Amino acid sequence: MQVVVVxxxxxxxxxxxxxxxxxxxxxxxxxxxLDTPPVxxxxxxIKAGEKPVTPAPSPKSE
Amino acid sequence: MSVDxxxxxxxxxxADAPGAIYVSIAPHSIVGAHDLVLHWPCMxxxxxxxxSRVACFHCxxxxxxxxxxxxxxxxxxxxxxxxxxxxxxxxxxTYYSRDESPGQRPTLGDKSRFAYLDSPEIVDSLLEYTDAxxxxxxxxxxxxxxxxxxxxxxNLHRLNPAILRSVTNLSTRRVTxxxxxTQASIRVIVELLARIGYEPDIRxxxxxxxxxxxxxxxxxxxxxxxxxxxANVMLFxxxxxxxxxxxxxxxxxxxxxxxxxxxxxxxxxYSAQDYFRxxxxxxxxxxxxxxxxxxLGIGSLFLRSAYDVLSGSGPGYFDSFTGLVFFLxxxxxxxxxxxxxxxxxxxxxxxxxxxxLRRERGCDLAVPxxxxxPGDRIVVRHQExxxxxxxxxxxxxxxxxxxxxxxxxxxxxESGVRVYAGGRQVGEAIELEVLxxxxxxxxxxxxxxPAMVRExxxxxxxxxxxxxxxxxxxxxLIAVATALFWYWADPSRMIWIVTSVLIVACPxxxxxxxxxxxxxxxxxxxxxxxxxRGIEIADAMARIDDVVFDKTGTLTQAPQASVSFVGPAPxxxxxxxxxxxxxxxTHPLSRQLSAVLESSxxxxxxxxxxxxxxxxxxxxxxxxxxxxxxDWAWFGEGDDGMSKSDRNSQVVYVGFDCxxxxxxxxxxxxxxxxEDTISRLRRDxxxxxxxxxxxxxxxxxxATLGEGxxxxxxxxxxNKLDHVAALQTEGRNVMMVGDGLNDAGALHVATVGIxxxxxxxxxxxxxxxxxxxxxxxxxxxxxxTARRVRRVVYASFAVSLLYNVVGLSFAxxxxxxxxxxxxxMPVSSVSVVLFASLxxxxxARREKSA
Lengths: 62, 850
Prior knowledge:
The structure holds 2 protein chains of 2 kinds. In chain A, 48% of the residues lie in helices and 0% in strands.
């Protein structure tokens, strides 16, 4: 049964790893702005200046 | 959020026309970041003209008949066209690819208005970081509202390579810019932003303001620690509950228990520390708040568990303990819904600009207004604020005091007459001599009056605090009674049972019901565009029994917004004719008219006639133009087609060449559905109106508001403050609804002060809540919802008390095992959270349909 202690330590170490990751991300400001990143990624595919994207002058659509 | 249908005036206007739809976002539209996501489907609609109306490709406003064009797109003004060309040159056309007309019309203005940014003193106060090569600055840009804004502002480096990196924050509407200090200066960057329509808002009070990020990340860290401990302790406790006889006294069991104890320590010392602090602060101030029984419960839970584990008598309640702290902290996060892009604490310093023009030996220099001294000569141009009390030296002063005194009419000021700080000059540039420093001006004196200094900590007692007092008392009584009983029955079990009572009486569910019910309400209000400072305001709204309104700007619309022409729409040329004539008249209505038609080119006027009480006439460019009342400019023609509601506003009739042309409706136009709003409010509340304006339109106001609404005229800002304070000493809970600096005092002392604003990014005085002016008719509904939600809070108090009673019945009889506690605690917390938030939602829906 003593092997359970090893498992216990292992599980806590893994969980603590996640905790540290969480604290690190909170500290680095990951939770400061929850609105901009989901919007920012909309433009990820378009690199500025690669192509002058301008919608056609008058796209008539019904 | 729904899409408002309507042609004008609404932030989102969707005009239906056969074959084409366009969606426009007016500049300064009030869009919360959360609204955006829901709006994309409608933004897929194609921007095109509907009949004669063409929306500007850049900003979405209506274009004139002969719009500026570029690449086949139409623009409302040269400014928008210029921005488009700048962006095309920098190959930033992507800006227009996602959101239709995302742009802002650039504010035209003299470049020298940014000259103050060359002053090292101001630069120093703005900089966040600086080294030999680079500097970093964060600017507040109210115009930020959509994905396109974010994209453009993060590609600033394409417009100016000296900008190394820029990061936009949509929720706070701020941009952080890192730039090469050898290549650019703050002024260059601000000028660039202004040129593309994103002029930063640099105010006196934002200087030296640092965002307090540390507190929010600390809260997340506390939750993280509590959650980590909660999950692991549960894992360790499970074998204990599952095996019939426990794990025995062997090594494994002790290891698990000790591990739980170690994991619970940081929860006690770090995650839960705020509750102990708050309870201690409450006790020191001789106030028993809800945190006292909470701290008592948490503390005894931990100590008892530690004793159990260390003495080997049981597994302890560490799972309940860590779970409890975790849930409590989650409630705290939920109630902290904040509208970050708004600021509720603005005083006069936010209203004034940073700098003004000082005239020294014939040349004008921008200086920070804090450096103005009596005797300085300053120049104030059209639409600029007078920064300090001063005497007019030269020029024709026409000062708009509506924001600081509530007077609706422009004041004519001749040279040698005193002008007060906060007034806005309309017309030509004037030269003034400063009389007093900015901090000594008459306007600022309101802030130094003793009533404005509400001492910290003297917050209004909330329902929870009252509940906390009775609750603590009851808990202590029960604990003492139980102790006495068991001392007599079985002294060896006394301590064990008394700690059980304290544990189970911990008002965890009670503490959760308020944040979740009121937090839900604050979110619902936010979607309806009432933004309140925090959940305690939602609480206070339920206790209101007296509603006091300001008139100018609150019940009425801002003067510029209220001018409309009835009759065949005047062409640009017609407007020039009317504007040129109106310019010559001194009548307040002509003033307002000429202020609106100002952009037109002025034509010379001959044969000018001004007949008192009738109107004015003159020959402009060969046409005889009449402006005045019906007798003067309607020439005895028949029906003027004025609707019933129009008769509430002031009218200027227009005649061309002795034929009626139509009429302008202007002056105080009351907000939509005002009569209905007031009559609904009057059912449950006492309503009164305080206005700084004169009694000129007393009859109309009375007719609109109905009988029983007391109206006081010519109230100074100090009068308003005193009036509200007097009502409060009568024991009434007052809600003040106002808009301007003249209401600042009353807003501050009132139980709840709501600032009404047409543009949430513009200045609004310090208040507890900010209401979008178009939503004023919802005010009775907001108050009604607050009352309903208070009942929900009471009901969930009752539910959580029920859990406490059930738990107590286990505890006093000595049957509170760790397993019972581990089941009871999460069940009660989760059910109360669900009850409170669903109840608040339901209450809001009920009130809406009522």
